[in-house]
Design a protein that fits this description.
The protein has helices at about 5-10, 10-25, 60-65, 70-90, 130-145, 150-155; strands at about 95-100, 115-120. By secondary structure, the chain is mostly helical. Strands 1-2 form a two-stranded antiparallel sheet. The radius of gyration is 17 Å and the shape is globular. It starts with a helix and ends in a 14-residue tail after the last helix.
Length: about 170
């Protein structure tokens, strides 16, 4: 049931391995975030997307760069970890899934995915450093398996969200 484009780009054995990874990574009970929305989303997912521009104050940005050793990749991990912690704090959930933009595509041309599902399990005993390391490892693993289409994973997990109002990620 794989489309021709995926077969031409990625060998079947790689797709099978990646499918297995994502099904294992995203299986189990998925918590609805109960995140307080100030508005509802568009009737058609992906339409009418609105961005939010903001600036990080200079001293805070300098501190973030020092903390990440001026590495773009580490800064991305820091920001993704902060978002995960913030969503956990506001929602009260300990199982957080964020659809994060793919940092760098490995090949030019057809993009199979533009985002990866980063699932982080939080608990009160974890330190910030441990959460950073968990997000870093999860992101590294997800990047190794970025060729399997996320839409197909939703199909296999049978959680498109259309029936229940719940999707894999609400961020």
């Amino acid at each position: 049931m794989q489309t021709t484009i995926f077969k031409n780009i990625v060998p079947d054995e790689t797709l099978d391995k990646e499918k297995k990874y994502w099904l294992q990574r995203l299986s189990g009970d998925l918590e609805k975030s109960n995140f307080p929305y100030d508005q509802t989303g568009p009737a058609v997912p992906g339409s009418d997307r609105v961005g939010l521009a903001f600036q990080v104050p200079g001293p805070l940005f300098s501190g973030m760069l020092r903390l990440t050793n001026s590495s773009e990749n580490n800064l991305y991990i820091l920001l993704l970890s902060c978002l995960t912690l913030l969503l956990g704090k506001y929602s009260g959930n300990t199982d957080i899934i964020v659809l994060a933009p793919i940092y760098k595509q490995r090949r030019e041309g057809e993009f199979i995915n533009s985002v990866l599902a980063i699932r982080t399990r939080l608990n009160r005993d974890l330190t910030v450093k441990e959460i950073l390391l968990q997000v870093k490892q999860t992101l590294a693993d997800a990047n190794k398996h970025l060729n399997y289409p996320m839409e197909r994973i939703l199909y296999h997990l049978k959680t498109t969200g259309r029936e229940t109002g719940f999707t894999l990620s609400e961020t």
